[in-house]
Amino acid sequence: MCAVQQVSGRAQLPGRVISQQRHYLTVVTAAGLLQADIAGRLLHTSAPMERPVIGDWVMCSPRKSEQRATIHSVLPRSTCFVRKEVGKRTGSQVIAANIDVAFLVMTMGEDFNLSRLERYLALTKESGATPVIILTKADLCDNPQACMQAARACAPTTDIQIVSAFDGTGIKQTALYLAGHRTGVMVGSSGAGKSTLMNALLETDYAATGHVSPFAEKGRHTTTHRELVRLPSGGLLIDTPGMRELGMIGADKSIDESFSDFTSQIERIAQRCRFRDCQHQAEPDCAVRTARADGRIDSRRWNNWLKLKREGAYQAEKEDPESRRAKRREQIRLNRQSRSLRRND
Known about the structure:
The protein is built from 10 helices and 14 strands.
């Protein structure tokens, strides 16, 4: 990985992107830290998801006298954390690459949200990274064990850490997940305590912290760009701006994996439905609908599961023109069939 390569007559070094602020990248190489731009050929011939992001290993040609470099290619990624682009755009956006551990950071205050946690879990499963749930601000919560039990019910096989930067609870245990120079990323909404946790892990006031609104316990972005830093323990950690939107991509399998205990429960109950192909909507003698009505199936999890699957399917359809055309053809066929039946009546 450290060998110099000759490409088109120019020496190229491997490096890793450690900072990303809009279109400005910083790359660490054997020649030191270099401010990097993207070669025009890479920028204009690659898809947006193939362009360098924080955590990527790249090949670049250094200009040592200027302390700058040009990135020519992105090396294959081991993992890739992706979300839907913010707003009305329907493309996918890479948040970070080559991540070993994803810390899903959530406060135990009023902003504690199990549906959001399930969304984070599904996206992390899709990325290939290992999820770890971090419940912050334990010193401000009257009953942290209740929050932990609620999170455990949503993610029975995922590690959970209760932390407090104020008294140091859980900080050392969290750092251990990045032992052996592993790379982690913190994902969470604004005000979840990511910057405060980063400072505690770094044992310094590296990241700015902000106040949380006393009205809704929602914070503002205190991290404004993505940056990879080295912890005293040797691990690497990427801090990301708080994400108010974390749209699903076409990750149907990952959604089912993150709801594995829940889908297993539904499959068991569905065996008692009258019809084998029961959709659990309006069919008679539906055991799943009965279980939802009497509380055996958690309605919140059911609704969120369906919401994430619909969102993921919609995104997959938007990114797959053939899928859109097939759906359109099927809709036309059904419309014709409906008109034919009305004429026969």
